[in-house]
Amino acid sequence: MARQIDQLLEKYGESHQNPTNKLIHWLCIPAIMFSLFGLLYAIPFPVERGLFANWAAVLLAGALIYYLRLSVPMFFGFVLIGGLLLWGNHALYESLGSDPAALVRVSLAIFVIAWIVQFIGHKIEGKKPSFLEDVQFLLIGPAWLLHFIFKKVGISY
Fold first, then answer.
1. Which of 43, 57, 72, 99 sits most deeply, having the most CB atoms within 10 A of its CB?
2. How many CA atoms lie less than 13 Å away from 53 in the CB half-sphere?
3. Cα dihedral 116→21→9→66 (10° resolution)
């Protein structure tokens, strides 16, 4: 019997066969993740906002629990990726003068553009996005990209 992670990656891959759509996903999924972290980072937090004290870090913690249930190597991959996303948004926030509104504007622009391009990719593919069938595919998209990297470098997931 196939593991759940393998089944999810296979199902996600069914609607991501076209090379143009795949390329779009390699660009847009990271952009969407980064911008989502930025939008969450900008929301006021109960304590002073910092690298790990923000709503993006809370989302990351929840996502990491999900990935840990699927695959330990995926979990560790997303610890690294999530840390980089948090660090990148923290650095962007500081470069914008620690202005949450400016971070929201930048993140929202990236988010909207990346989603539009993703939908164009699915139009090219001729198949609807997987998350319209099952919302957990919003978390499988990043894992689908990471599994290709793991395969390339010889890491079992």
1. 57
2. 7
3. -30
Rounded CA gap, 13 and 149, in Å? Answer: 15
**126 in the Ramachandran plot: left (φ > 0), alpha (ψ -120 to 50) or beta?**
left
Using one digit for the tens of pLDDT, what is the confidence trace for 135-146?
899 999 999 999
Residue 44's identity, in one-letter code, is: P
Q: How far apart are CA 157 and CA 52, in angstroms?
A: 27
**pLDDT category, 132, cuts 50, 70, 90?**
confident
Whole-angstrom distance, CA of residue 19 vs CA of residue 9? 17
Extents of the domains making up the chain: 28-153
* Contact in structure between 85 and 142 (CB atoms under 8 Å): no
CA-based diameter of the chain, in Å? 53
Say if residues 132 and 60 touch (Cβ distance below 8 Å). Answer: no
Are 72 and 94 contacting, i.e. CB atoms less than 8 angstroms apart? no
